[in-house]
Amino acid sequence: MALFETIPLTGLIENGIRTDGRKIDDLRPVSLEVGILPKADGSALINMGKNKILAAVFGPNEVHPRHLAKQNTGIVRCSYRMSTFAVDERKSPAPSRREVELSMIIRQSVEPTIFLEYYPKTMIELYLQVLCADGGTRCACINAASLALADAGIAMKDLVAAVAVGKIDRPDPPTIVLDLSDVEDKEGIGDMPIAMMPRNKEITLLQFDGTLTPDEFKEAYELGLKGINELYEMQKTALYEKYAVIQENIEQNNGKNESEEQSNE
Ligand code: ADP
What we know:
- It is a single chain.
- The chain has four helices and twelve strands.
- By secondary structure, it is an alpha+beta fold.
- It has a single domain, classed as Ribosomal Protein S5, domain 2 (2-Layer Sandwich), CATH 3.30.230.70.
- It is globular, with a radius of gyration of 21 Å.
- The structure holds adenosine-5'-diphosphate.
- Residues 87, 89, 91, 98, 133-138, 182, 185 line the site of adenosine-5'-diphosphate.
């Protein structure tokens, strides 16, 4: 997908066009890559606009300390960290309250999709490292996290896809838009991150900051659903691509072995 151009606007939306050239129902350019960290059990990299986030999964492994293990189910631990260089002003390397809260929110958004009952007495660790932040990092993290979990071979009901929908104005009247950028997140008048297991439309995260009328909420939900379905297709493609490469390598190796056997005969 072509990068959207940044066009000079005094407000956030003018004649239906946003500061980065997108229409109201456009996602930012998204790229997803699976299995990029050889030392993790599962991993993914997401670029969503200028967000660049790495997700790594370890496990299921033995729980430490052991008394935290649960007899009948596995547990998920999640760590969201934003790098000091991820934002315009250097961020303190010390973990912030925001990072602690987002770690919990991301964990709660992906946990419902995991068959944790298959992994009693174990833990699955999920690490999200934000290398560059551009608004909507929690949603981008959820998209990458569910891919990394699938890459680790964790039994799941579905992938989880997430996007933020919001309300922006100036000079146009308040408009519901898809996938808020950093400036829209900060200067807009509403922000609603949604995460969902798209197959049965089970919502795993719905937050809201601002005010929406019932009609606006309906419009925002429909727009969010459109974005989530687009992201879901991209997630599935990213997984298929990884396995297509593996399949190609296996076929090449099989072909090589067969020709070696023939030349030995
Ligand atoms: P989300 O990233 O999920 O939208 P927030 O609403 O807390 O979560 O953050 C919005 C955006 O604000 C982030 O994506 C990031 O671009 C920016 N941001 C967050 N924390 C900081 C910080 N400490 N310094 C500068 N910008 C920040």
